[in-house]
Amino acid sequence: MYKAEKYHQHIGVYGVHITEDKLLCIRKNAGPYQNRYDLPGGSQEDGEGLTETLTREVLEETGHKVSKYGNNRIYDSFVKSSPEYTTHHIFALYDIQLSENEGSIPEIVEDGKNDSNGIEWVPITELNAENASPLILKVLDEVQKDKKVLEKSIFLSWEVKDNF
């Protein structure tokens, strides 16, 4: 068991879209995953179900509708998000497909509704602990069939990056 002095709990819902060995990522501009690649998704609004959150957040961050989702699973990570707090990030992942015009995904969705600097198709081989969020690291564990994929991840020396 992991213990910290002060916890902050965050629950989110995120989409995983892999095509041609590339993962659809957003470039975070705020929070503990700032200046790292992350998955499109985020927090629920009052009264929202998980799939409603998924489809709303993916649309807000990518500009495209989710046309299909499935293979839901849940993971968690403990991230030392500040000197005072450890964030227990609980995240539901869904495999997604985007609307037919997914090839024309805009570079940046500028609507003020999200904390990203746009999206990017990133080769899976280029994602690592230095440039990716714990969510993406779990997806990499899935791809690599890591036997500990279901176990919590702990990042005690997590750093908010200065630049991308």
Through-space gap between termini: 33 Å
- Per CATH, the superfamily is Nucleoside Triphosphate Pyrophosphohydrolase
Following the backbone from N to C, one meets helices and strands in this order, namely EEEEEHEEEHE
| Global mean pLDDT | 88
Shape: globular
- CATH architectural arrangement: Alpha-Beta Complex
User: Are there runs of 5+ residues with pLDDT below 50, and where?
Assistant: none
Relative helix content = 10-25%
Report strand %: 35-45%
**Strand order of the biggest β-sheet:** 5-1-7-6-9
| DSSP summary, beta strand count | 9
- Say what the CATH topology is: Nucleoside Triphosphate Pyrophosphohydrolase
Find the structural class using helix and strand composition: mainly beta
Q: How many domain modules?
A: 1
Q: Specify the biggest β-sheet.
A: 5 strands, mixed
Secondary structure tally, helices = 2
Radius of gyration: 15 Å
Question: Quick one: CATH class?
Answer: Alpha Beta
